[in-house]
Amino acid sequence: MDEVHRMRGGPSRRGVLRGGGALALTGAMAGCGTGLGVDSHGVVHIEVWHGQTSTALKAVKRLVADFHRSHPSIRIDLGGGVLADDMLQKVMAGLVAGSPPDVAYIFGSDLANVARSPQLADLTTVVDSGQVPWKQYWPAAREGVTVDGVVRAVPAVLDSLAVVCNKTLFHRAGLELPGPGWTWPDFIETARKLTDRGRGTFGTGWPAAGDEDTVWRMWPMIWDLGGEVIAEGKREIGFAGEPGIRALDVLAELARDRSVYVDPKPGGEQMYQAFASGRVGMVATGPWQLPDIRQAKIDYQVVPLPSFHGTSVTISGPDTWSVFDNGSARLKAARTFVGWLMEPDQAYLWDTEAGSLPQSRPAERGPRWRKYAAEVPGLPVFTEALETARVRPVDRAYPKISIPFGEAITAVLLGKSTPAKALRRCADEANAAMAKVR
Q: How far is CA 23 from CA 83, 167, 189, in A?
């Protein structure tokens, strides 16, 4: 849904990434909370910064009302005043001031920086005691909330990337729809054939704001080519050679063919609008976009991401519910709340209304999810991708890599640099910044 889409790369996202490291270091020195939060009736009040809007916010409010009925000794106060895009900055400011929330919605890629504060709680006991066995959660869900071997949050929204195709435009161009096993060269050729300048249609689209929404789409290509985000030893990027150049070459070819709709707006808003209006033939996206596509009455089909070697590699981007230690009573209540959110009934409501994939294999196999997935064409393709999906490294150096790589991607898409030159500049900047972080 579009509120989930905005979480992936809203207007403030890049500024948050730039500021995260310094704020995290300061936050790590903050004090230990704002008291017990127990009123005269013995009710523990905890503050939850939810970061949601529209449909997802309605789901949060419904869940909180259900929680209050079953847990009368705990009161949830919803707040925060910002969307998820601005949550890192808001939370870090709270840590500096010694007044963080009890629970906050944090992007998984930001979790390592938040974990530098001793107030971020260890949630190992929460995930070990849930009704759904932790080991049956998708690997991407578990890895996305684990920092240095410790579970520091619980999964909130789980997604993956695949390609959504406009069947009408494929038919008009006389093309067969792609399927499993297609390659990035196939993608480039298909985009070229789908492009019709007379009709104002493009083969595909790509965000070019330099934000995280721009960057995370590249990691499947990097991994497929044998590269890594961070090299072994954690002193430099792991894609400075062939993996990075070949991945950027894909975008360079699309740009040369003028078959890619380059969206300079954060979060890819214009790209999705162009797809919804029938002007883009295929777009790499996640399950959060399907409701908008269906509402636009686009006749679509979802297929796995292409690859270089015939086996699709994709990425998952878990968002998290993070808990902060504001005293024993509030910490216990906060752990109770996020543990309750993980239980099957609550998880199903949240997953279906907030645009998440099911967090675990048992949830995916359950009759309720199966029925729901059957009503949303293409949704099973995203879920099946979780079997092999990878996540961005949960490492505090990640923003130092994402920012210059986003600039490199944008330069290539706009024809302002070659892949080799853009990657070299990215490597120089990222490696220098990583050396300071370590």
A: 18, 47, 45
The residue to which tokens 């006749």 are assigned: 299
- Looking at the structure of the chain, the number of domains it has is 2
Rounded to whole angstroms, the Cα distance separating 413 from 256 reads: 9
This prediction's pTM: 0.86
Average pLDDT over residues 375-395: 94
Helix (H, G, I), strand (E, B) or coil at 78: strand
**Do the bridges between strand 150-151 and strand 146-147 make them parallel or antiparallel, or are there none, so unpaired?**
antiparallel
172 and 152 inside one domain: no
pLDDT digits over 156-203, tens only?
999 999 999 999 999 999 999 999 999 999 999 999 999 999 999 999
Distance, CA of 63 to chain centre: 22
E-assigned strands of 304-390?
Answer: 319-323
| Residue burial 141-176, b: 16+ Cβ < 10 Å; e: rest | bbbbbbbeeebbbbbbbbbbbbbbbbeebbeebeee
Q: What is the CATH number of the domain that holds 12?
A: 3.40.190.10
Taking alpha carbons only, the member of 321, 275, 286 closest to residue 101 is: 321
User: What is d(CA 41, CA 58) in angstroms, rounded to the nearest whole number?
Assistant: 28
Domain that holds residue 8: 2-158+318-380
pLDDT digits (tens, 9 = 90+) for 28-45: 333 333 445 889 899 999
Query: Quick one: CA dihedral 246, 248, 249, 250, positive or negative?
Result: positive
Same domain, 93 and 195: no
283 shares its domain with 431: yes
Is there a single domain that holds both residue 270 and residue 337? no
Quote the CA–CA distance of 123 and 413 in Å, as a whole number.
41
